[in-house]
Structure formats: structure tokens, C-alpha cells
Amino acid sequence: MSRAAAALAAKREETEMRLAGLTLPGGGAWATEARLGAMARLREMGLPNRRDEYWRYTDPKLLVDEAAPEAAVFDPKETPLFEGIERLKIVFVDGVFDADASDSLDEEAIEITLLSEAAGRDIHWAKSLYGVLEARGQTPVARPLAALNSAMATDGVLIRVTGRVTRPVSIIYRHDQTNSDVCLHNLVQIEKGGDFTLLENGPAAARFNKVLEVDVADGAAFHHVRAQGRDHERHAVTHIFARLGCESLFKSFTLTVNGALTRNEAVIELTSDDAVAHVAGAAVGDGKFHHDDTVFITHEGERCESRQVFKKVLRNGATGVFQGKILVKAGAQKTDGYQISQALLLDGDSQFLAKPELEIYADDVICSHGSTSGAIDDEALFYLRSRGVPVSEAQDLLVLAFLAEAIDEIEDETIAADILERLQAWLARRSG
Questions:
Q1: Any idea of the CA torsion for 40, 46, 47, 48, to the nearest 10 degrees?
Q2: How many helices (H) and strands (E) does the chain have?
């Protein structure tokens, strides 16, 4: 047996030991079939470890251990994000739907169902999507924790959009128990010409595994903004799997402040011509903070555009990771792919680990990637100080200017302004 085969056999054995105590959630025919398929995928690939290529920079041990690491509940004593926006609210507390805190799920041009309810039926529209994009996203890079989610998720929100939806849907994740271990799986299916905005915020659980599958049909648009909560000790792994049709639009922005370990994966397929996909993130970490963005974008259609914009501000030993790839398949001519990942290191103890990649099989494309890390520009700091700006305030202004390119990816100016104000207040408190 070769060394690689022996390593895979050992990984599968470890996976079987971990899965031995798990029981698949009950459900109807379609849900059971999907969960069994996901479990079979997981058993084939095995749970991740540090020997895996895309887990070299992030130790998955605390994400796969049988017991979730405890996380103290943190109250930031601030108004929740999106509070001033008219929206339809759906609230989960440690993974359990809170009907009293949520709005009615009736909305024009949209159908909303809870996974826990839909999974009990033998037939549901989610059958054509649940776990399907996750399964597609397992090639060429395995996403085992996403397969675990598809198998074990007990709830989530299933959204089918049939037209233009003016009021965003806001999923709020609250964390009340120090040992909660939660799997949620959300679906969004946007039919031809539809337009929809999804907001997400909150820490969700002590350990959180979430999958979001998004199918954007021809001429449809999906806007997504999320903030991952302020709990300092939270451990989370999230996945976005998206499939884009002809002339469709996908935009997603993530804000991360605090958290012991966060890994955000995004796997996006531009399957037809003239599609646009933008994925962006801003992370601010202090001390025990490990933040990993892993992105894989595949161009299949002609004249498609993708942007990856990720900025991280790190200090007091915090760690940032970025792994991003643009794959341009043969025939995907006129592709425009842009990728930038940058870290601002506010001390000598923090680190940024980056692995940008381009893989191109078409000859008429514009693709670029860049990755940098460094300290605050001394000349810029000197300029502000010479104008009478206190040193801490000057540093905060430069940090906000550094994050601005990622925040600019948010199309809604009101949301972008709110996020910028909150970051400014957070930085001011930390400086104080």
C-alpha cells in the first residue's frame, strides 16, 4: 500500500470512529436520501486534518472533535447590526427556531420554509437543491465539513424567490448556551429575473457549522451581507455554494470581529455567459483569533466577471489565512477575474498566511491576483500626526481606509455605512 493510500485509510478509520456516535436526523424520502448521500461522501473523503493541502494553515481539530469546545456568551452591549433596516426576521437560538422572536414567514414573491418542517415531507422543492451544490463543490477540492453538515443539519431556512423582493430576509443567530453545537443548512433558489437580499448576523453557537446553497437563475440577482457575531471564544466553519446562470449577479460580504476560530469557505460556479460574482470580507482580530477565508471560483461561461476582495487587520498574535483560486475552464473566453488579499499587521506577533492561485485554460482572459501584508504606513501616519490627529485616532483612520475596498463591495450604501461606523466605534473602544 502506498503512503497516500495508507494515509487515506487511516483518515477513513478515524472518521468512522468519530461518526459512530452520530444518528442522522429523521425525515421524509427526499431528506433521508440527501442525508445518506452526504454521509457516503463524507465517509469516502474522511474528516479533515492538518495533512490535507487546504488545511495546512488551519487546524480543524476543534471543528471535528466529538465534544464542542465551550464558549462563554458575550454581550457586546451594542445595538444589533441591521436593526434600523426594514426586514423580515428569522431567529434561531443555539440552532433552534424561535417563533416568538421571528416575523411571519409570509412574504410577497417569496416562499420560506424551515428545513425541520420540509424534511418531514416526502416531496418538496428543496429536493432538487439540498446537498446538490455541496456535492458539486467537492471537486476538485474536498469539503468534508460541508458534507457533514448536509448529513446532520437539523434545521435551516429554505427560500424560493419568484420575483423582485424589496424587503430583505434577515436570519439572526443567537448564542445562549456555552456548550451548544449547531448545524444549520440554508437554501436559496432565485428564479429567472428574481432579485433578493439575505442578511445574516450573530454568533449562533459555541461551535457552528453552516452551509448556504444558492442557485441564481438567468437574469437573477442575489445580495448577501453577514456579520459573524462578537463572541470571543466562538468556533465556526461556514460554507457558501453558489451556481450562477446567464447574466446573473451574486454578491456576498462577510464581516468578522472576534471569534477564536473561523473558517469561511466559498465555492462559486459561473456556469453560463455574462455572470458576475463578487465575494468580499473584512476581518478584525485581536489576540486569540484565527480567521481563514478559502475561496474557489470556477469560470465556465464567456464574458464572466469575478472579484475576491479580502482584508484582515491583526494584532496581539492574531492569525489570518487566505486561500483563493480562480479556475478558468477551456472555452471561458473574455473572463475577467480579480483577486486581492491583504493583511495589516499592527504588531510583530501577528501573522498572515496566503495561497493565491490562478488556473487558466482559455487564451483570451484578464486575470490577476495579489497578496500583501505589512504594518501601517509610517508616512501616512506621520502626515496625520502632523495635522494634529492623535496617534490612536490616526491609526484607526488608516485601518478603516485599509478595510474600505472590501466594504465598498456592499451594494447597499446604508448597510455599508452602518458597518463602517461600527468598526470605527470598535476600534475606538480598543484604543481606549
A1: -140
A2: 9, 19
Nine cell digits for residue 67? 465534544
**How many Å apart are CA 175 and CA 140, to the nearest integer?**
34
- Long-range contacts of 42-45, Cβ-Cβ distance < 8 Å, separation of 24 or more: 42/15, 42/144, 42/147, 42/148, 42/151, 43/12, 43/15, 43/16, 43/19, 44/12, 45/138, 45/142, 45/144, 45/147
Instruction: Decide the pairing of beta strands 305-315 and 335-345.
Output: parallel
The residues, ordered by sequence, that sit 6+ positions from 291 with a Cβ below 8 Å of its Cβ are 256, 259, 262, 283, 285, 312, 318, 319, 320, 321
C-alpha span between 374 and 345 (Å, rounded): 6
Residue with cell 445580495: 223
* Residues 6+ positions from 20 with CB-CB distance below 8 Å: none
End-to-end CA distance of the chain: 60
List pLDDT tens digits, range 15-25.
999 899 889 99
The model's pTM is 0.96
Check: CB of residue 343 under 8 Å from CB of residue 315: no
Contact yes or no for 325/357 (Cβ under 8 A): yes
For residue 390 the three cell numbers come to 492623535
The H-or-E segment that residue 398 falls in is: helix 391-407
How crowded is the C-beta side of 46, counted as CA atoms within 13 Å? 17
pLDDT at position 432? 59
Q: What is the DSSP letter of 155?
A: B
Predicted pLDDT at 6: 83
Task: For residues 386-400, give the mean pLDDT.
Answer: 92
Give the domain ranges of the chain. 10-16+28-272, 378-432
Question: Residue 413 CB: number of other CB atoms within 10 A?
Answer: 9
Please check the confidence at residue 183 and state whether its pLDDT lies above 90: yes
- Say if residue 428's pLDDT is above 70: yes
Average pLDDT on 73-91 reads 91
What is the spatial distance between Cα 271 and Cα 188, in angstroms, rounded to a whole number? 17
Residue 175 to residue 145: CA distance in whole angstroms: 21
- Quote the crossing angle between the two packed helices 29-45 and 144-152, to the nearest 10°: 150
Angle ∠(243,277,305) on CA atoms, nearest 5: 115
Q: What span, in angstroms and rounded, lies between the C-alpha atoms of 25 and 32? A: 8
